[in-house]
Design brief:
Layout: H1 4-11, H2 19-36, H3 42-45, H4 51-63, H5 69-76, H6 79-87, H7 91-113, E1 120-121, E2 125-129, H8 131-137, E3 143-149, E4 152-155
Antiparallel strand pairs: 1-2, 2-3, 3-4
Helix pairs in contact: 4-7, 5-7
Length: 157
């Protein structure tokens, strides 16, 4: 029969190591796992991290029975531009003008580019050629540009 010390050494996963050494090894192993594993940030998990889903969300928001243009501007326009609108207290006026004059046209443009390939892309910018639509509907721009900021897509123009 084994004495108490012999029984403990059999149960111990590493009988030749002290308990602090085993704990330290375990902590170091766990830290190495954390450092090696890729981290998902909140933007990566958002549908807005992908441009096609952002365009679809914009279309859905503009087609809503009662679109919230102020929310649309806050959600999809360049955050720097939104910050300036808020600071100058022009957000409400801009949202009203957007709803009256621009929202319908933007909806047409977004529906037009939804299934098209971009004309020009980079990691942070995607341009769609809308010249055919601009010529047909008399739009002032022949390109619509999207910017990726902090992992999310926004309208540039």
């Amino acid at each position: 029969m084994l004495d108490a010390e012999a029984r403990l050494s059999i149960l111990s996963p590493m009988p030749h190591c002290s308990r602090p050494a085993v704990l330290l090894s375990l902590i170091l192993f766990m830290l190495s796992c954390i450092c090696i594993c890729p981290r998902a940030n909140a933007a990566d998990a958002s549908p807005r991290a992908q441009l096609p889903s952002t365009i679809s969300a914009m279309i859905a928001d503009l087609k809503a029975s009662k679109p919230d243009y102020k929310k649309f501007i806050k959600s999809y326009c360049n955050p720097e531009d939104v910050k300036e609108l808020v600071e100058t207290k022009m957000l409400d006026e801009t949202a009203a003008g957007f709803g009256d004059k621009t929202a319908g046209t933007l909806l047409k443009v977004l529906q037009y580019v939804k299934d098209k390939k971009p004309a020009d892309t980079s990691d942070k910018t995607v341009n769609y050629d809308i010249k055919a639509l601009a010529d047909k509907d008399g739009l002032p721009e022949d390109v619509i540009t999207f910017l990726k900021i902090d992992g999310l897509w926004y309208l540039k123009n």
